[in-house]
Amino acid sequence: MLDKVKKTIKKHNLMDIGDKVIVAVSGGPDSIALLHILHSLREEFKLQLYAAHLNHNFRGIEAQMDAQYVAKFCEELKILSFIKSMDVPKYAKEQGVSAEEAGRILRYEFFGEVVERVGATKIAVAHNQNDQAETVLMRLLRGTGIQGLTAIHHERGKIIRPLLDVNRKEIEEYCAQYNLSPRIDETNLEPIYHRNKIRLELIPYIQEHYNPSIIESLAKTAEILKKDNEFMEEVARDAYNQVKLEKAQGCLALSIEGINKIHPALQSRIFRLATEELVGKKEGLEYKHIQGIIELLQKNETGKKILLAMGIVVKTSYNKIIFTIKDEEEEANFYYELRENGHLSIDEIKGEIFTKVVMREDMKGISRDKYVKCFDYDKVKEGLNVRNRREGDRFWPLGLVGSKKLKDFYIDYKIERDKRNEIPLVCDGNEIMWVVGYRISEKYKVTEETSRILTVEYKKMLKES
């Protein structure tokens, strides 16, 4: 078994020479065998080994005895051990998660603490071939895709699993061969959890009636699907980069037209990649969430939205589908008076306004920049100001006959709802003179009779370095 584990380490490049490795040790056969094997390989790989044990406080005195056993075992091997006790049942109740999930969260949180303390490069955990098979079956029964059936990976970040190619029987034989006498968690022998039922009831039934080698078969299936999944992920990432239109803080947009041209098998992966880029993980996106996004795409009605997991809102806006973590549209209302010659900063939208009044004969030319506009200053009666939209706003766009609702103007220009409140409006009192970046008003255009010209320039503030 030692040679088998060494082969796995080399095949999957799980460790480098000189690695500092934290070994997660529960005290059971799997983790004790793992620690013993890595201790045997420490000279060959020049390893610095540390052990980490978390008392979950589920089993009272038995759990305390586990911790004592791990401490003594590590002492015999001259390995520094870190042992911590946490109230996992209390955490599970407070967070509303299962006991198994609570244990996993706090366990990896503890491992992270030890990593920082010793500067570890790897965390070795003792998942084996049986765990792989059980995970495949669990996900298959629950319903999953190719990615889910790849189950447990040999390596993910700092986490490595050197025992993933050996089965539980081999581990037990190894422990017996070296007289390791690991602790046995009696709850693992009771069909009280879903995984335990699969381990103790379903797999033995399949072995007896269908396939004696079901453990190896399921592990092989997971390994085959990993390669298929890696290929599809690579293709999906290329497609994702092609359909991604823009990204801002807490928000990113994809092209609906682009997504519709992509095979449905890749669309779900693209949505998960968008989720990953937005919040740092994609595991929370379930089948029902994917279906909700697809239905949203099929309807393609501007303004429609759905709520996903992790606080993500997905909405359609013209030719875009937008992923955002802003639950509500943030209304940053602003209003500032403008001087006829001056400079104003608009902090709410990170913009600046520059104004200047000149006599017509002094004008050297009119800029074609969409953010620089000229107006007949003699037509300004109520006083200059800059603000964002208000309910009931109307506007007379240059070249049109009569005014129209500002809302309709925004719709005509396909301006997304969550962007409309960020557009500054240069006004004369309540009368809109310029929808900045779009159109000026017919009422304030420069004509042959104009004697004084007001120039207004809008700039986005430079980001602080």
Automatic annotation (TrEMBL):
Position of the signal peptide: none
Top-level enzyme category: ligase
Recorded catalytic activity of this chain's protein: cytidine(34) in tRNA(Ile2) + L-lysine + ATP = lysidine(34) in tRNA(Ile2) + AMP + diphosphate + H(+)
InterPro entries: Lysidine-tRNA-synth_C (IPR012796), Phe-tRNA_synthase-like_B3/B4 (IPR020825), Rossmann-like_a/b/a_fold (IPR014729), TilS/TtcA_N (IPR011063), tRNA_Ile_lys_synt (IPR012094), tRNA_Ile_lys_synt_N (IPR012795)
Coiled-coil boundaries: 215-242
Sequence ranges assigned to domain Lysidine-tRNA(Ile) synthetase C-terminal in this UniProt record: 384-456
KW Ligase (keyword) present: yes
Classification via CDD domains: TilS_N
Alphabetized UniProt keyword annotations: ATP-binding, Coiled coil, Cytoplasm, Ligase, Nucleotide-binding, tRNA processing
EC number(s) per entry: 6.3.4.19
Transmembrane segments: none
Any single GO CC term annotated in Swiss-Prot or TrEMBL for this entry: cytoplasm
SMART domains in alphabetical order: TilS_C (SM00977)
UniProt family annotation: Belongs to the tRNA(Ile)-lysidine synthase family.
NCBIfam families in the record: lysidine_TilS_C, lysidine_TilS_N
Free-text domain note: The N-terminal region contains the highly conserved SGGXDS motif, predicted to be a P-loop motif involved in ATP binding.
Function: Ligates lysine onto the cytidine present at position 34 of the AUA codon-specific tRNA(Ile) that contains the anticodon CAU, in an ATP-dependent manner. Cytidine is converted to lysidine, thus changing the amino acid specificity of the tRNA from methionine to isoleucine.
Protein name, UniProt field: tRNA(Ile)-lysidine synthase
Naturally occurring in which organism (per UniProt): Clostridium formicaceticum
